[in-house]
Amino acid sequence: MAGILAGLVVGCKSNPFVPEDSNMKPSGEKVKLLSVDGEEIEVDKAFLKPVPDLPAVSNSVARVGIANKSFVMVIDLSRCKNLKKCQSACDYMHHVHPGQNWIKIDPMQDADHTAKYWQPTTCMHCDEPPCVKVCPVDATFKRQDGIVLIDSDRCIGCRFCMAACPYSTRVFNWGDPEVPKEIAGKPYSCETSMPQKKGTVGKCDFCPDMSRHGELPHCVSACPNGTFFFGDMNEDSVSNGSETFRFSELIKDKAGYRLMEDLGTKPRVYYLPPVNRNFPFEVGLENEKQKS
Ligand code: SF4
Ligand code: SF4
């Protein structure tokens, strides 16, 4: 109702209750509203005009980020079975173009004689992000809470950021992403990274729209093995939805590490080593989605 009222107040300057279409007939059903003068008025329901579905926060607010937060992710490699539920959830919730996954899960083996393991990779949300430094139009930026995002309305598709990212986490939208009509018509939101546009770059965004509501990113909630932990370094707490740990203790106790530490990018994604696994390394489990 507030949205409808806002539409009436903002969208119409003279008499907001005169229908634009003279053929429009009143329904007879009245709705009570507060006028711009603060008076309670009654309007026929047929004459109400909904405002467009705007993002929850403006892009200028989204660029600033959430105060007093310092987001961090921990990925426990000892739990990953390559079920790809994280990837499916991310693709589905962000309408990621088929094949352009923002989360990748790769088989890893550090040496011939060592064990294989699965490694999910997201954007590292680097504290010293090379991608931000090379963007010529300030389209990719780091917020006060540490999250690195992209403003597709500014992106000119030069792909300097893709070349600069040492983790290869960015993807280029060569074509128009396949998004439902209702999403395609919405204004771009830096916090949902939707709708993606042809000729721009996309990547994992740490689901900042979820964090704003105190909820976990989609990949974290989707993993049945609790592989992903997300939280706030200021609160020294990370959770996978069912278990919560002190971030500093978890990293210390389980010998957490970051990828390519020597580059000085200071990633916000930490890994726990793939030790003490109670399941074998298997290929193909992602195809048994219904059974897992
Ligand atoms: S992982 Fe790549 S895209 Fe993400 S913040 Fe770091 S440099 Fe930028
Ligand atoms: S592709 Fe877009 S986000 Fe990346 S550097 Fe160029 S303008 Fe910036």
Structure description:
The structure is a single chain. The chain is of the alpha+beta class and 292 residues long. 20% of the residues lie in helices and 18% in strands. The protein has 9 helices and 13 strands. The chain has helices at residues 2-11, 59-64, 85-94, 130-134, 160-164, 181-184, 208-212, 218-222, 247-253; strands at 30-34, 40-44, 71-76, 104-109, 116-121, 140-142, 148-150, 171-172, 201-202, 228-232, 237-239, 244-246, 269-272. The strands form 5 sheets. It has a 5-stranded mixed β-sheet with strand order 12-11-10-3-13. A two-stranded antiparallel ribbon has the order 1-2. Strands 4-5 form a two-stranded antiparallel sheet. A hairpin with a 5-residue loop joins strand 1 (30-34) and strand 2 (40-44). Residues 1-14 have low confidence and may be disordered.
Q: What would the principal axes of the Cα set say about the shape?
A: elongated
The largest pleated sheet is described as: 5 strands, mixed
| Beta-strand residue fraction | 15-25%
List SSEs in N-to-C order: HEEHEHEEHEEHEHEHHEEEHE
Bound molecules: iron/sulfur cluster
The radius of gyration over CA amounts to 23 Å
Q: Averaged pLDDT, please?
A: 89
Structural class: alpha+beta
Distance between the ends: 42 Å
Question: What is the overall number of helices?
Answer: 9
What is the helical fraction, as a range of percent?
10-25%
What are the low-pLDDT stretches, counting only 5+ consecutive residues below 50? Answer: 1-14
**Strand arrangement, major sheet:** 12-11-10-3-13
Number of strand segments: 13
